Amino acid sequence: MAPTRQLYTATTTVLVGPHRNQQAFTAHTLILTSSSRFFAAALSPTSIFSEAAANSVSLPEACPRVFIFWLQWAYSRNLAHEEVDWDSDLASPPSTSPIRKNGGTFMTSNNENNTKITVGKRPPRHVAFFHLIRLYKFAGFLGCEELRNAIVDEIARVAVKRNAVPGPDDTFELWDEEYEAGGLRELVLDLFMGMRTEKLLMEATDEWDERFMRELVVKEKGKEKGKVAGVPVVQPWRDECVRCWTYHEHKETRRCHPLLDQEGIPS
Fold this sequence. Notes:
Strand order of the largest sheet: 2-1-3
């Protein structure tokens, strides 16, 4: 067995993207294996996979930009992104790259702060939630439960700070049936329910994902029944303890708050 100190210097090459146009990234093997169940299995000394012997991993279906974002989190445990929260202390200066033709983020026009923004048109600095949504999906593939929970927290934080919700294209991305969505779908539904987005949904120039709309209608009917029954309206994304219990996954990681246990949230 190699000395423990070598774990801090050993590196692995990760080839990202289609085979004809792959980009090579070199990262510390310890960072990869400690941040992802996928890399831990592929690069284990006892692994039956060829990647361990070659010290190289190929991810042909991954996006290089998403992988770079993942590396940022793996090394620093922060999700600062200049197109998500541009005045964050950890974010880089705003990008000069063109805005996506479709998608992006829409601001609510009828909300508790009475913010008035033209529905269907993005402001000059829109919150590009799709960066976090794509990273959330990639984290599911890599087996990064800690990261998926961190993304839920970051989307909730930015949504409140910017009074913003994901856009139509983001709902297509998130309601993709090819992957396990975890609690992020539930968070997005609750954000739309709690931030009074009725006018936004009706007047948006792009279409919303049909599955998203169906689930939102079901949730709205449940909310109306709750009002009739006198059930108080809550916003679980605003409270750290309730947010963890409602949206997080903790099959492999400890819950975020010591008061949370398997019985539920203490009164």
